[in-house]
Amino acid sequence: MLDVSIRRRVILMAGDAAADPGARRRMTSRELAIWRSLIDTTAELRAILGAQLQESGCSPADYQVLLALKEADGRRLRSSELAASIDWERSRLSHHLARMERRGLIRRSDCATDSRGAEVSLTEDGARLFRSASAPHLRAIKQCFADALTPGQFEELAGILQALQNHLHPEVSIARVGGDRS
């Protein structure tokens, strides 16, 4: 099932393709093979890195939540902000937070500024799990990803990722370009 924000982007992009006659060109077999390689490689990296995280007693989903909380001011976020920052639907987040709370990794409390909201905060146990999982996780990222690329390939990849982000979010890249001119 596609995330709502992804679904919206796909619909918008489909509308853009219909409006742009140049976008009707079919992908070449080489382009499709490269796309498939990207999908297969990223899935394999996720599986390898996820298995490594599991060895530390931390699921990839746990790590994503813990990282967002670790980086937040005061190690706490409103649940709506947390959902947006990790791009999860709120119902998925709510179920996952309940499991993490039972394990003592996070704490949920009423929001002081809005009685309808809840704040999620990182507990000491959550911070400890995050620290113990981070060092081996970063070593695995280096071994499986960074060590495979030269500095030049990293720069090429950065350019490719920026081009994709600009294509997916043209309003952001336009704003950024406009902001650079002032």
Protein described:
With 182 residues, the protein is mainly alpha-helical. The protein has 8 helices and 3 strands. The protein has helices spanning 4-19, 29-55, 60-71, 79-86, 90-102, 124-144, 151-168, 170-181; strands at 76-78, 106-110, 118-122. The protein has a 3-stranded antiparallel β-sheet with strand order 1-3-2. Helix 2 (29-55) packs across helix 6, helix 3 (60-71) crosses helix 6 (124-144) and helix 7 crosses helix 8. It starts with a helix and ends with a helix. Mean pLDDT is 86; it is low at 177-182.
What descriptors fit this protein?
single chain; 182 residues; mainly alpha; three-stranded antiparallel sheet; 8 helices; 70% helix; 7% strand; globular
Please give a quick description of this structure.
This protein is mainly alpha-helical. 70% of the residues lie in helices and 7% in strands.
List the helices and strands and how they pair.
Elements: H1 4-19, H2 29-55, H3 60-71, E1 76-78, H4 79-86, H5 90-102, E2 106-110, E3 118-122, H6 124-144, H7 151-168, H8 170-181
Antiparallel strand pairs: 1-3, 2-3
Helix pairs in contact: 2-6, 3-6, 7-8
